[in-house]
Amino acid sequence: xxxxxxxxxxxxxxxxxxxxxxxxxxxxxxxxxxxxxxxxxxxxxxxxxxxxxxxxxxxxxxxxxxxxxxxxxxxxxxxxxxxxxxxxxxxxxxxxxxxxxxxxxxxxxxxxxxxxxxxxxxxxxxxxxxxxxxxxxxxxxxxxxxxxxxxxxxxxxxxxxxxxxxxxxxxxxxxxxxxxxxxxxxxxxxxxxxxxxxxxxxxxxxxxxxxxxxxxxxxxxxxxxxxxxxxxxxxxxxxxxxxxxxxxxxxxxxxxxxxxxxxxxxxxxxxxxxxxxxxxxxxxxxxxxxxxxxxxxxxxxxxxxxxxxxxxxxxxxxxxxxxxxxxxxxxxxxxxxxxxxxxxxxxxxxxxxxxxxxxxxxxxxxxxxxxxxxxxxxxxxxxxxxxxxxxxxxxxxxxxxxxxxxxxxxxxxxxxxxxxxxxxxxxxxxxxxxxxxxxxxxxxxxxxxxxxxxxxxxxxxxxxxxxxxxxxxxxxxxxxxxxxxxxxxxxxxxxxxxxxxxxxxxxxxxxxxxxxxx
Length: 518
Fold this sequence. Notes:
mainly beta; five-stranded antiparallel β-sheet; 35 strands
């Protein structure tokens, strides 16, 4: 059997010249043992690493969670470890949310010598038994170093070959497979600019556009070095450049860069290898991420439910869907410098949603926000705030940023074909005048009586009041937009409330959807 990196692959054992190491200390690092090959989830909340006590022949896979500002005592990762000496388990990775573990193993039943396996976190926080992800990703070759993109849509992995580097490590090529509702598509090789020489262990960083991987150029006296490549708006990858900050004279393979400004790796301490961290270069956009995390629960019983986060970049109109975990947790990364329409809901039909606009166009550093959400089953009387619908200058012209929210309502009505709703628009202040002004958009006509004009005809005597209350027209504009998309009029009731239904006695400017019939 060919073995790939079965020996402890310690890297960064020389001092990195750019800055200070920050060892994690207890309970991660312990005396008389080596901690190495560390990997973190993209949100930085879950850590997996290998642990080997000085008296043991084989390392163990350990897992720890970042809670209340510290790491929990590491525990063996159930199902991932094996006491059989000739069974390989390694090249572990976590998805962004930390609820999916992928790794390479030679365990039974396999397709090739080393296949990619997967474990998922359950609703009670335990892990499922490892499952072989099967063909077409796994083959008769050796698949290693799996890594999921932050949205879970793309799987990067390495197919190893029989070629070796001067130090004896195996060569490979990086492949990428797309996940669909029917499973994984046939993987394809990444461009030749990436797959140049020997390459392995590709990781897409939290910005979803920076690929970090290890590469060795044949004929070089050096081993594997870290490289990065950037993906542009067309999907093309830039010419890779060396990440000199973390490269050493040895084989550089394991480097974990979650959202934030720190990278995690192993170095040689006084007597053993320990897990440490240091700041990443400003040039890496992984430190320019706004991270939204939280838990989603059901309103009726407060039980956890698997979340789904849908967000749209309002500058370039690109959308992304991120699925949370069975334990109700979610994490979603947003690249700074843009504004986003965000929707958080359950990953199953028939529930309410929470929406908000994230204005990050002025943000240029890492920030994190915790946002827990309660979702409710659709039922008569349920009111869903439509936070992301707005109008231009208080007119009945919908703002272009309202489009994702409008499409959300449309999809809800399209999926739930018996659903009938009221679209209610409220305002916080109403101005009126008998003289027309530019900020008064509506008119109220009152009939005061009749009179006989000079020709002897009876005419109505009216009073016209100009008003800023445009709620009825705005509600109708939403209804008309939905009708143009194919929703029948009888399923949408537009209603302008003006200031008649204040919240806690205070008039509130808002748009709401009330379920009339489910």
